[in-house]
Write a structure and sequence with these properties.
This protein has 166 residues and is mostly helical. The chain has ten helices and no strands.
Amino acid sequence: MTLDQINKANSEQIYSLFENCCCAPNWIQKMIDARPFSSKEAVLEASEKNFAQLVEADYLAAFEGHPQIGNLETLAKKYANTSGSASHEQSGMSAAQKSVLEEMQALNIEYLERFGFIFIVCASGKSAQEMLDLIKSRINNDRQSELTIAGNEQAKITKIRLEKLL
């Protein structure tokens, strides 16, 4: 989408576009109100500025826009290596990978019960093992610290989605 299209889109269209980047209604409205944008950089700067103004309820709304990793099939699809590996390497998960995914599934459930929101991380370029290591390192945080970390991860995810939009 071009910058001109973003600036000229009607409220319904632009709401939907921004919602695909982040589901926090306050962030979406702030982005709509920030138009017109003078450049792609201005869009990204507005997003960063608007994220800094969000509160807990906004973060929780944003997190709800992500599917929860709740079963092995979802995890296997999420972390399957499809970037040019030989087909036999893509056809299944090794026993070690399956154990990583099973542990990740259990920790996702524990995380949700502990914090009241799903595990949020900018997963771009991360392996299943890296994701497991991250959830293990964060599971014992206090809720406020974890909310801050998850919010920062959401901001990274949103930036990537905005960059793809632009």
